[in-house]
Amino acid sequence: MNSSDKVTEIINPILEKELKTDAEIRKLWSESIHCYNQRQTFNKANEVYDFIIVGAGTAGCVLARELIYNVPNVNILLLEAGPPNVQVNDIMRLPCTFASVYRSSEVDWGYHTEDQKMPSSIDPTKEVLNKGSSYPRGKVIGGCSTVNAMIYMRGQKADYDSWAAQGPEYSIWDYDHCLE
């Protein structure tokens, strides 16, 4: 039985019964995708991959998932810069411990926005200095969505509605219905 058959064997019951528990999803990922980060030694020099995805943020993970579902017998290498430390990942899932990993060089790239001079809203003839601020960017599986203290945000209604207006096949993306 090849790896694609294993994936099919695992995923079909999940889809049929809608038993998408964390354990089942993790099992699927572990059997389908080879994920390496900067601390692991990549010693499979002769391994051949159909796709190499650099970055296991939300886009990279979704792309890997879509490839698993749509490409038979696929072999994927998913690379991530962050740590393999499961304990750190578990800490990031608790909003009350968010500050302990925030700005950590292990899980955050440490970006900071530039200082900006701008006209004063009180006296337009004067300038005020708007100090730069931290701009967290995750380097863990899940990317920035993992280091955001579990904050839920939705995009602007106009963005969703403009996607839906591109044609009938996109109508499911309108703001009021895309989460159904």
Fraction in beta strands = 5-15%
**Uncertain regions: pLDDT < 50 for 5+ in a row?**
none
Mean pLDDT comes to 75
Number of discrete domains? 3
Q: What is the strand tally?
A: 5
Structure annotation, total helices: 6
Kindly name the structural category: alpha/beta
Question: What is the CA–CA distance across the termini?
Answer: 37 Å
> How big is the Rg?
21 Å
Order of helices and strands: HHEEHEHHEEH
Please characterize this protein's 3D structure.
This protein has a three-stranded parallel beta sheet. Helix 3 links the parallel strand 2 and strand 3 (76-80). It is an alpha/beta fold and 180 residues long. The chain folds into three domains: 3-81, no CATH class; 86-145, no CATH class; 153-180, no CATH class. Helices cover 32% and strands 12% of the residues. The chain has helices at residues 3-17, 22-32, 58-70, 86-92, 98-101, 157-164; strands spanning 33-37, 51-54, 76-80, 116-119, 127-130. The longest helix has 15 residues, at 3-17.
